[in-house]
Amino acid sequence: MTKVKICGLKEEQHVQAASRADAIGFVFAPSKRQVTIEQAAELAKHVPIDAEKIGVFVNATLKEIEETVAGVPLTMVQLHGDESDELVRAIRVPVIQAFSIRTKEDVVKLKQSLADYVLVDAPGTDYRGGSGNVFDWSLLEGADIDPARLIVAGGLNPGNVHAAIEQTTPYMVDVSSGVETDNRKDTVKIQEFIKSVKGDFVEETMEKVGFFGKYGGQFVPETLMKAVKELEDAYNEVKEDPEFHKEYHHYLSEYVGREQPLTYAQRMTEAYGGPKIYLKREDLNHTGAHKVNNAIGQALLAMRMGKRKIVAETGAGQHGVATATICALFDLDCVIFMGEEDIKRQQLNVFRMKLLGARVESVTKGSATLKDAVNEALRYWVANVEDTHYLIGSALGPHPFPTMVRDFQSVIGEETKRQILAKEGRLPDAILACIGGGSNAIGMFYPFIQDKEVELIGVEAAGQGVDTAKHAATLTKGTDGVLHGALMKLLQDDAGQVQEAHSISAGLDYPGIGPEHAHLADTGRVEYRSITDDEALAAVISMSRLEGIIPALESAHAIAEAEKQAKQMTADQILVICVSGRGDKDMATYAEKLEGLA
Amino acid sequence: MNRLEQLKSSGKKAFVAYVMAGDGGLDRLKEQVQYLQSAGVTAIEIGIPFSDPVADGPTIEAAGNRALNQGVTLQKVLEELQSWTFDIKIPLLVMTYLNPVLRFGVERFTTECKKAGISGVIIPDLPYEHKQLVHPYLDKENIKLIQLVTLTTTDIRLDEILREAEGFVYAVTIKGITGSRDELSHDVKTFMQKIRKKSPVPVYAGFGISKSSHVDMLRDDVDGFIVGSAIVEAFNAGKIEEIEPLIRAVTTA
């Protein structure tokens, strides 16, 4: 995990506020944050024993540096001037050399540094709405700098540090002015910054054993335990592996076509008469929806584990198509289980899967929809576990699936965050995403979880209405239960039998909801609402005609809720909608349900 | 004393029969149990129907659906068992997925099981790692939580599971779901020998046992057999007497 350095500390209370940081920086060069050796030595007494104490110098002599290192004492030295290679070599503690990055040439200079670590800092580009300067992180892309020696600084703050980490995957992030108020360090901002890098302490611990609050776990038949544990280990390994991330992002950009735009929806904004509305365009992904982000990640992981056979379930067919596509790309054997009912609703996607070389197995049991397809895929996995990976399509199932799927989908929220900061210089006021199992929503929400000022709203399918028997509003109407490997919220009867879900949208037709969503609902961090079939269809028409974008039925639920949400917001606010997929696959349903449309 | 502990001391090969409670109507359960007891089975697993039985093959799933269509619930099954007045000499076990138990309430489930004379509980989707959810309650009532081990259970987990095993160990003979099979794979024999060497409690082989050839193959390596789908099928077809040779193949000889 990326380390945190809090720099330019002058007061004991701020050193204490930074107790979870990995490094503390003392500035000895002339600056408003300058401290003497004596002051630093006093402050250093309050630094945890395992944290680095780093001295910052500008063109100091070796003698001055050595006296300071001994006097505080310091564990590392950071150089910000035009220090020679000889000086870098002569310093006995590890050295960080800082570079200002304006151009690609600066990046080359940085790569030649003899220092143990290189710190990249921003020159004077103005950062709208921020407190410092940010450099163009994309300059580092393709520069082939070893992330293990990279320290990123320059205009970081609690709101943008997560995006910086995602883009540069550095060894450490360095912050100074970003945790200040009126030129003085701010205890709250220091803690927020550390938290946004390291996450909430408690949440971290839970994730280790696969629980989100009380939800999650590994409730699977014994035959699958080995596979689930192996997957857990393999995923933990690649999570920290920059090579894996490079490969994953390579396919996202070169094959899927990321990053996807955050489109300003001008006519929707005008029509709804409230906040500025932006659309996150997952519909533009290759294969037509967000599902492919996860399919690539898991397929790469499966191959690392030596598994070349893939089994998957699909509801709307989007995950099935994404999986079949990736299996074609990587030459993997592919079996897709799909409910008979869904096969009827999504014939085009069934043919796409077959065309891509996948075997599509029709599931006739139960409600013959997504839940039953998951059952059959699990049974198939039980029987073929040694050489087969189960590529779950949503943030569901036994640990590590919910965490893994979330991480692979987080690219949605990470891009959105970066894009909205670039366009508006601030975070949005509200974000909406539709929820079946919850993968596009958790991918969109996760990077914003720590940004308490951003309202997060998940939209479930109310089918014919939450007070009828035909809906899929799991969080509105569900209760705690175990299904498909995890404790989550379920639509179930009093005897613990899982009930059938109903939605016009095959992708939302699932009686459970991912364990992390269940937890986020309990804690109140995310609000969950629901939209009926009719409201979703109306939103399909409205979005098609206002923006020229025909959304998937699933996404239309978020769009329908956006119209309601916009009414409670003002013109100076910003609303982001995740358009999780495009409507091509739903054209037969649209043609039937909207017959006579003028 | 828990009846499962008596089993161990008898030294005979065990035949554990599985029935799906409520398949054909809950009123049939009593006669099915009486029949199996008189046919000489060693213990009976009472299966609780569940909407999403991912560890089960088509036979038991279909039986579960028939039972669910009759409105059978965990509560009704336990009430039925509690109403019985005939003499049950053999151990009864409940086999259920976790969700009906959670919905019913774990503590209530264990006390009702106790009242119904249940000796053991099998929960196929409750792995060793999560057994704390249920085990302390069962333990209080001296009801055994039967653990499953499979061909894919790693040696480290196998040792952990066996160290705390109670009642008997349910050793799964196949990589797959329940249901009748023609052949068992040959590594099963070595697997059973390994478990039996380490296990402090009897080792019973289950999943896919439907023929006397299966029994012959594993007889020397296990303490007993669990037969499910073949019995469920026979009851459903009204030909339960056809199962008797298999019972004899296990318990005599």
TrEMBL record, chain A:
Keyword ATP-binding present in the record's keywords: the answer is no
Task: Return the InterPro entries for the record.
Answer: Aldolase_TIM, PRAI_dom, RibuloseP-bd_barrel, Trp_synth_b_CS, Trp_synth_beta, Trp_synth_beta/beta-like, TrpB-like_PALP, TrpB-like_PALP_sf
Entry EC number(s): 5.3.1.24, 4.2.1.20
Pfam families reported in the protein's UniProt record: PALP (PF00291), PRAI (PF00697)
Keyword annotations from UniProtKB, A to Z: Amino-acid biosynthesis, Aromatic amino acid biosynthesis, Isomerase, Lyase, Pyridoxal phosphate, Tryptophan biosynthesis
Instruction: Report domain Tryptophan synthase beta chain-like PALP positions.
Output: 258-579
Please name the pathway. Amino-acid biosynthesis; L-tryptophan biosynthesis; L-tryptophan from chorismate: step 3/5; Amino-acid biosynthesis; L-tryptophan biosynthesis; L-tryptophan from chorismate: step 5/5
Q: What CDD domains would the database entry show? A: PRAI, Trp-synth_B
**Cellular component, GO annotation:** cytoplasm
Sequence similarity = Belongs to the TrpB family.
Give the protein name, as stated in the record.
Multifunctional fusion protein
Q: Which organism is the protein's source?
A: Planococcus donghaensis MPA1U2
UniProtKB/TrEMBL annotation, chain B:
Asked whether the keyword Amino-acid biosynthesis is assigned, the reply is: yes
CC terms in the record's Gene Ontology section: cytosol
InterPro entries assigned = Aldolase_TIM, RibuloseP-bd_barrel, Trp_synthase_alpha_AS, Trp_synthase_suA
Positions of the catalytic residues: E45 (proton acceptor), D56 (proton acceptor)
Q: Which GO terms describe its molecular function?
A: tryptophan synthase activity
Which chemical reaction does it catalyze? (1S,2R)-1-C-(indol-3-yl)glycerol 3-phosphate + L-serine = D-glyceraldehyde 3-phosphate + L-tryptophan + H2O
Say which domain of life the source belongs to: Bacteria
Give the EC number.
4.2.1.20
Pfam families in alphabetical order: Trp_syntA (PF00290)
Q: What keywords were assigned to this record?
A: Amino-acid biosynthesis, Aromatic amino acid biosynthesis, Lyase, Tryptophan biosynthesis
Q: In which pathway does it act?
A: Amino-acid biosynthesis; L-tryptophan biosynthesis; L-tryptophan from chorismate: step 5/5
Q: Family per UniProt?
A: Belongs to the TrpA family.
Q: Write out the function statement from the record.
A: The alpha subunit is responsible for the aldol cleavage of indoleglycerol phosphate to indole and glyceraldehyde 3-phosphate.
Record-linked NCBIfam families: trpA (TIGR00262)
What do we know about how this protein assembles, alone or with others? Tetramer of two alpha and two beta chains.
* Protein known as: Tryptophan synthase alpha chain
